[in-house]
Design brief:
eight-stranded mixed β-sheet; three-stranded antiparallel β-sheet; 18% helix; 32% strand; 4 helices; Nucleoside Triphosphate Pyrophosphohydrolase; alpha+beta; globular
Length: 230
């Protein structure tokens, strides 16, 4: 693996200028019928023709690409809620950020789905027996050279999570209806190392605590919105 020759400067993404305010978006929310377990089952059983909005971030690390998988765990409560993690601040990549459970694919993982399930079990203690995999979305390549396969799944709500304290600082849920409404999507832009970089954010008020969802996580959620709206 080559040594990193580029690096992002430290910055607070909350302070980066908003260039497109989702509150003014003309796009409608994803259809309510697709924000249900049965609606999603039917969608993945017969996927529509669609095109991801985001696929490849500008590189900011000079390193060999690595395959990874993340799980989009949709908890079946009164309404579907997405389970997300807050990464611990000492991790080497994407420290402190909000993320899906997931990580690098191991040689022992037969496919992307197996990697996502293993990582979710290792990171937050989500039992595979509670997970109903629906399918996956196209890969998303991060600026840190991870080629990520997002795996979408329904989750039975009677779980007892055991987050790994070395990787996960917190676990929380966000209503899928909130995330699939483009009025809550904001696009930011700034110049870094002479290159314009843009990303989405989806700030969520979690009982008075702001959960600032941004970067690759928000990008994959924007793609999920495009799929559900196709």
């Amino acid at each position: 693996m080559s040594s990193p020759t580029l690096a992002l400067p430290a910055f607070d993404p909350r302070t980066v200028p908003v260039v497109a305010d989702g509150a003014l978006s003309p796009l409608p929310p994803a259809p309510a019928g697709r924000l249900t377990p049965q609606g999603l089952r039917e969608l993945f059983a017969a996927p529509p023709v669609w095109t991801p909005e985001l696929a490849h971030e500008p590189r900011f690390l000079d390193r060999s690409p690595a395959e990874a998988s993340v799980l989009l765990p949709l908890v079946m409560r009164d309404e579907l809620k997405l389970l997300l993690t807050q990464r611990t601040p000492h991790l080497s990549t994407h420290s402190g950020q909000i993320a899906f459970p997931g990580g690098k694919r191991d040689e022992t993982d037969p496919d992307a789905v197996a990697a996502a399930l293993r990582e979710a079990e290792e990171e937050i203690g989500l039992p595979r027996s509670h997970v109903e995999v629906l399918g996956h979305m196209p890969t998303y390549v991060t600026g840190s050279a991870f080629i990520i396969t997002p795996v979408v799944a329904l989750v039975q709500p009677d779980f007892d999570l055991r987050p790994n304290p070395d990787e996960v600082a917190d676990v929380f849920e966000v209503p899928l209806s909130f995330l699939m409404d483009p009025r809550h999507h904001r696009r930011h832009a700034m110049a870094i190392n002479g290159q314009r970089r843009e990303w989405y954010s989806m700030p969520y008020d979690d009982a008075g605590r702001e959960r600032f969802i941004w970067g690759a996580t928000a990008g994959m959620l924007r793609n999920f919105y495009r799929l559900l709206s196709a």
